[in-house]
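Quick start: read one record
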Amino acid sequence: MTLRSALPVVAALSLALGLSACSSPDDSEPTDATTTEATTDVETEASEEAETTPVEETTIDIGESFTDPDIGDTIEVLSVVRGFSSAETLEGGEAVLVEVKITPGEEYGGRISAGDFKISWDDGADFWNNKTRMVSEEMDAAGYPVLEDISRIDGGEHTGWIAFLVDEQADTYTLQYIRPESKVIGSDDVLEEFLVEVEIPAP
């Protein structure tokens, strides 16, 4: 699990009220060109086929938790499902489900949602949003209840699943959770951005 800073995004917090965001790449002649090209094509096709072999549906326990030091939210990444069977899965891609348990802090308002989580399949160079709505019916049918939006003022524990449709299947992925830099309404207090990254391992 990695904690690091990213570009600041300003939000606003109110005591026991709400959280609202303000804002959120040779000169030598070939001896047998035809044979060389044919061999290269075969090797390339074989390599691409090996790289895009679909992952069989597999559940992996994660069990990593973290707590936002300023807001008090505690989030645990319980498990993931690699290779979830979905009609929305792109060729060469993968559907990944992430199960989280969230216990919101009690001091501030606002909400926590699936939109606070993103995934990267290129070693953290870019992160993409979840696609839970696109596969929610398939998730429900398979017994994976969707994570609903959570209001901090409601308290309690909330468990659910978030879906990501990966464009390019990879051995491992990076899951990111981010709570943006936030200003407490009615005061000059500014809470620093909180960002955590968790590795989703190979099946």
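The chain has one domain: 2-22+57-200.
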